[in-house]
User: Which sequence fits this backbone?
């Protein structure tokens, strides 16, 4: 398809090399665009499994590319059980045919599903023999694959209880559990253990003891940089909640720290982390309020026990949710027919509670928060009704009656990066002779968005409509930082490791498949177009096409949008020897053609694609002189640019600056700047060709080789 007119997409290239993979792949998946979750209706609930299979679902997750994944067990304790799974691609209208993951398991327990940042999903389970459990196994569904890998044992955890998986950068997995490596030999070995799988097919590392002592509850989570936080309940005469963290890149766990003591045991223990390292531990006690402990990003110190702003004498509370920007949002029933919410700011201040639904409530499912801040929660009533409420772009929608369920229905909900929500639950069908429940798996989701809308400007990951930022480390590895509703960049996606002898140019949708592309030059001067599936980060394994050679003669490759007014993105490149600026126009066939010279004497300038700075729907360019002055060059829509106008000075202290697109959500394109000391600033566009003063939105960016 050839798309509607592309308004300038503010992108830039500075200092960031990349790899070109082997083998051209032209078959790309076209994914429908994102829509506000509030604009999508819930589909009618439907069974995912047959009634006669004695199936029991184990929850639902959404991968980084928007694919919903669910797994379930089939069979009862009287016969060998099987593990099955199904997927629902982003904005699809139906689930895939169920796939058997494992067969002939005497009894399955502790089924645990986790998604990776590379778009994969991994399930672990405890397989029983006739007398006792026989260790844990895992199986992985790689991004875009239709089949799960063959079950493989977690060799480092032969005698594990309550095992949890967490996903780190790349395809790294960490398993944490409580147990004893050699039961019956030395009971002093009981405690919390951890082991790592650095890549699919590798061997699990030897188990490392995190803490000793009896453990009754266990939970874990990984931050964006790979730091892992584990929490558990220990018994020292009184019940103690303890935590330990392994910093990113470290092999050592911190000394266990007690964050809560109580005479009563806890339940529903949970650990949540943000991309930048904030962490929260939540749990349930006798009181209906949900206590939690919070650790800010960049800190190693946990705060004291906090409580939600709910009346502890009445109502029911859902688990509080840690948002990507470090805030905490909670939902609770404060009366028989009153459901309220409030949000805790990073500084600890709660907003005034507000009512989101005047409906009765029996059980909460969720809530679940997506990377873009969208939230979805479902609940059941004593009458068997299933209701849902969604927050999208900061606005709560009206409660929606989804359908009818039985009173004992247990379910979960997951929200993808684009705000789409999926729910899965068990419908009780009866009991076995041993009084085990027989269930059928049911599901519903918010409906698919309307197809045909181009990808949002600079939106590479999550399909959420927010512009994203590329950041490269000195070893060539790529992180894609997702823009969010707060006007910042936070959640990261792993773009793999690329050779440092190549150059990366974040681009628009050049081949018309509905997804933004990335251009890559290699050391030999060949140019490639990488075209990952919409909403997923580009990696060296993404589908690509080769354009040709000769690009060693050019530097300063820059993308700002559509300079020729034909709805196709264009590339600007500077001839290294002469400093002349040339336009390479995008073509209907997904390639580039050189149209002519559009500027001279650009040899000493730093060039940035600024997007549309003055609101005329044409792509503009910004350039910095060697003395730090900033100049704006308007695009004419005819494949040329205007003469320069000075719009700023003092930019010599910026290591890089980026035309990020509309990060603030006001319809005007903005600019980001990274100082030489590693601070990240946002300069909001005013829509008339200028930019405002800088607002600091991040620190600690000095270690990157470049951002773009």
Assistant:
């Amino acid at each position: 398809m050839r798309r509607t007119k592309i308004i300038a997409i503010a992108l830039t290239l500075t200092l960031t090399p990349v790899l070109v993979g082997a083998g051209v792949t032209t078959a790309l998946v076209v994914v429908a665009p994102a829509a506000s979750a509030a604009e999508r209706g819930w589909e009618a609930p439907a069974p995912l499994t047959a009634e006669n299979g004695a199936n029991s679902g184990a929850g639902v997750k959404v991968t980084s590319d928007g694919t919903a994944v669910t797994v379930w067990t089939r069979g009862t304790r009287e016969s060998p059980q099987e593990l099955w799974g199904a997927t629902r691609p982003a904005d699809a209208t139906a689930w895939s045919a169920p796939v058997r993951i494992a067969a002939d398991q005497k009894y399955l327990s502790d089924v645990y599903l986790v998604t990776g940042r590379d778009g994969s999903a991994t399930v672990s389970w405890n397989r029983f023999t006739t007398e006792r459990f026989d260790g844990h196994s895992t199986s992985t569904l790689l991004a875009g694959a239709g089949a799960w890998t063959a079950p493989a044992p977690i060799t480092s955890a032969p005698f594990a209880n309550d095992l949890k998986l967490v996903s780190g950068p790349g395809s790294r997995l960490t398993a944490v559990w409580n147990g004893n490596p050699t039961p019956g030999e030395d009971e002093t070995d009981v405690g919390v253990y951890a082991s790592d799988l650095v890549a699919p097919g590798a061997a699990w590392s030897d188990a490392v003891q995190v803490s000793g002592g009896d453990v009754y509850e266990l939970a874990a989570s990984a931050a964006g940089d790979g730091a892992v936080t584990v929490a558990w309940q220990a018994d020292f005469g009184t019940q103690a909640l303890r935590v330990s963290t392994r910093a990113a890149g470290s092999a050592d766990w911190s000394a266990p720290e007690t964050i809560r003591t109580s005479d009563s045991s806890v339940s529903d223990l949970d650990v949540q982390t943000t991309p930048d390292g904030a962490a929260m531990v939540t749990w349930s006690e006798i009181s209906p309020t949900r206590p939690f402990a919070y650790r800010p990003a960049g800190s190693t110190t946990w705060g004291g026990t906090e409580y939600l702003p709910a009346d502890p004498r009445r109502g029911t509370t859902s688990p509080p949710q840690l948002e990507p920007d470090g805030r905490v949002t909670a939902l609770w029933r404060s009366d028989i027919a009153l459901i309220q919410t409030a949000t805790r700011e990073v500084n600890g201040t709660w907003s005034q509670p507000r009512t989101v639904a005047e409906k009765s409530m029996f059980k909460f499912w969720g809530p679940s928060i997506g990377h873009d801040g969208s939230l979805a929660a479902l609940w059941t009533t004593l009458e068997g009704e299933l209701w849902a409420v969604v927050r999208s772009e900061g606005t709560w929608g009206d409660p929606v009656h989804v359908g009818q369920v039985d009173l004992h229905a247990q379910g979960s909900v997951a929200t993808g990066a684009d705000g789409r929500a999926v729910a899965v639950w068990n419908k009780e069908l009866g009991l076995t002779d041993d009084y085990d429940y027989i269930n059928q798996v049911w599901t519903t989701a918010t409906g698919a968005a309307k197809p045909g809308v181009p990808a949002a400007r600079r939106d590479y990951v999550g399909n959420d409509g927010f512009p994203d930022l590329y950041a490269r480390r000195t070893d060539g590895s790529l992180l894609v930082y997702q823009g969010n509703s707060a006007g910042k960049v936070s959640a990261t996606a792993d773009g793999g490791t690329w050779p440092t002898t190549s150059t990366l140019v974040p681009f628009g949708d050049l081949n018309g498949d509905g997804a933004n592309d990335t251009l890559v030059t290699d050391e030999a001067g060949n140019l490639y177009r990488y075209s990952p599936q919409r909403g997923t980060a580009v990696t060296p394994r993404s589908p690509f096409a080769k354009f040709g050679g000769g690009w060693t003669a050019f530097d300063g490759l820059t993308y700002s949008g559509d300079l020729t007014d034909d709805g196709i993105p264009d590339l600007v490149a500077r001839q290294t020897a002469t400093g002349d600026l040339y336009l390479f126009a995008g073509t209907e066939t997904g390639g580039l053609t050189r149209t002519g010279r559009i500027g001279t004497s650009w040899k000493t300038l730093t060039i940035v694609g600024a997007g549309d700075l003055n609101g005329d729907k044409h792509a503009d360019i910004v350039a910095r002189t060697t003395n730090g002055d900033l100049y704006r060059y308007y695009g004419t829509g005819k494949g040329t640019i205007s003469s320069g106008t000075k719009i700023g000075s003092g930019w010599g202290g910026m290591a890089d600056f980026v035309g990020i697109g509309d990060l603030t959500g006001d319809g005007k394109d903005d600019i980001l700047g990274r100082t030489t000391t590693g601070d990240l600033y946002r300069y909001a566009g005013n829509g008339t060709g200028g930019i405002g003063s800088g607002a600091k939105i991040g620190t600690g960016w000095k270690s990157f080789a470049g951002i773009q």
The mean pLDDT is 83. The first strand starts at residue 46 and ends at 47. The two ends are 28 Å apart (CA to CA). The chain is about 0% helix and 45% strand.
